[in-house]
Design brief:
Blueprint (H helix, E strand, L loop, with lengths): L2 H8 L26 E5 L2 E4 L4 E4 L2 H4 L8 H13 L12 H13 L6 E5 L2 H18 L7 E5 L8 H6 L14 E4 L4 H4 L6 H18 L5 E6 L15 H11 L3 E5 L13 H4 L6 E4 L11 E5 L1 H14 L12 H16 L2 H17 L9 E4 L4 E4 L13 H17 L2 E2 L1 E3 L2 E4 L7 H22 L1
Helix pairs in contact: 3-12, 4-12, 5-11, 8-9, 13-15, 14-15
Bound molecules: pyridoxal-5'-phosphate.
Length: 459
Amino acid sequence: MSSDSSRARAGEENERLPLILGFQRIAENTASETRFIERGQGIYVYDTDGREYIEATATFYVASLGYQHPELIDAIMAQYRELPFFVSALNRTSKRSLDLAERLVQMVPVPDAHILFASTGSEANDFLVKLLRFQAVARDQPQRVTIIGREGSYHGGTLASASLTGAHHEEFGLPLPGFRHVSQPDYHGSRAPGETTQAFARRLAQELDDLIRREPPNSVAAFFAEPISFSAGFKTPPAEYFPAIAAVLDQHDVSFVVDEVITGGGRTGAFFGCETYDLKPTHITLAKAITSGYFPLSAIVIGRELYADLERGSAAVGTLAHAATYAAHPVGAAAALKVLEIIERDQLVAHAALMGEHLARGLRAYADHPLVGEVRTQGLGGALDFLLRDEDDRPSNDAASAEATCLAVHSVLFAAGVVTRAAGRSLIFAPPLIIQASEIDEICARLGRSLDLVLARRR
Ligand SMILES: Cc1ncc(COP(=O)(O)O)c(C=O)c1O
């Protein structure tokens, strides 16, 4: 569809498109406000006006192998020709789904894991919350259903995963009962002046402990966290944070669920964010990069005790009354198996870690730019934070003005053909794992020009 035909079809200017797009004003669902992407190649996508964009966040942290990976497309086509669809239920599944489950249990940092597949990250988190409720009943502890998430974290769009998400509750009448939230480890934004990372981590762990103690006894089932929350603005946790949190969870016998929907698949310098931060999760959720987005597939990595309770509980009830038609889709399984093969064979985790060092150098070159408050990097990911701190370690602009700067830089950079993500005060970079050093240089050069342009407009 050319831009002319798409615009003519939708009518000019403000006529609404016949589809609703996510995370924007509904009134902006117009042809003039929307870019129509029609093809992609490597780290680039092209719109119907022929404009080229560098997908510097791998299109919502998904397209880890970039666009048009020929081998991945071949593997998907081969699976379509062999078995294009099957359901995993009632004592039948596809061989390809089993192959993927076997592969994943060998890789995941959860001992004796079992895998339940789903289609999206939201479903993976939602289904896991549901399984934790099944576990509570099977253990004859039906009160143990409360789930704790963190402010600013995003876990999905279904009712349970949106409740677990730490934002945008009021407008949907959420959260559902039984969801609580604690602070994000936003050391740059919310530390007291001069507060050490150790004292900060202790304070956040104490907040979690206080919350659990305020709840009825033995009522908290699980704590969900991403190793790094991208939606909260790539707030890389201080080294002391997760050990302090894990100690509180252990003390109260609360499961630790690590949402690796974004971080899983080589983003953080290791295959799993759990490895990067030495986390010992009870369960993990995975999605996005495991198929590089070429097919919707997600996975719930289920730990030993939950599995045992599922087995016992389903024996008592006669079934585990849960399934999803497209879960464990053989085409998705074939895609994920090929992605894992390519990542291993081409040593893409090591390549991404190396490219991450290059990206970190490129971003850190702007650490002293007058608009930039902090540069954070980890693996092949990084962010510029526009909250400034003065010599007394006090914020010297407020969150609203930092967010406005972030949006301004994002939009100038977008116009310059680099797609990043503005998450609150922070501008995020997380390109495909296949990116090369020269392409990172190009992103960073355009970033520098965009920062200078936004600064010049202010003066
Ligand atoms: C950390 C995290 N968890 C879960 C989800 C939900 O995944 P999906 O959009 O595939 O439902 C997202 C989506 O961005 C995410 O970032």
